[in-house]
User: What shape does this take?
Amino acid sequence: MYRLAVVLLHDYDLARDIVHDVFVSLLDGRGTDLVSGGYLMRAVRNRCLNHIRDCESHQLIEHRYFYDKEKYDTEAWPDEETLALINNLISGEISPQSRRIMELRFSEGMSFSLIATEMGISETAVYRHLSQALKFIRKKLSENG
Assistant: This one.
């Protein structure tokens, strides 16, 4: 069981903890009365796969919310012509709610949670509006060269 967990997780300590958790769940009565070797191996495999899935979910969330960083790289800021084009796109071609979210995020430097509270929407909705607006702006900028 331990070797299976190590092969799946590539982490000795975590593998030991997962095997330990399987046995703890059996002692707590959450397991079945008839426990076979196959059951134990499947339980360890499933717990390892659940752990991998949870880690991937956390990484995906971190990647999605990279916009919520407090510091910006100002050296890579675009030139005045590009800024003027971006401002025209923002003021004319995106929804008012997305425009307001962009203003709060980039002009006032507010976090997703503060924007969500102020606008009365969820943080996920803030992310979606911001993501769609940025995708639209990137598309228009690439079309214009």
In short: The mean pLDDT is 78. The longest helix spans residues 37-64. DSSP finds seven helices and no strands in the chain.
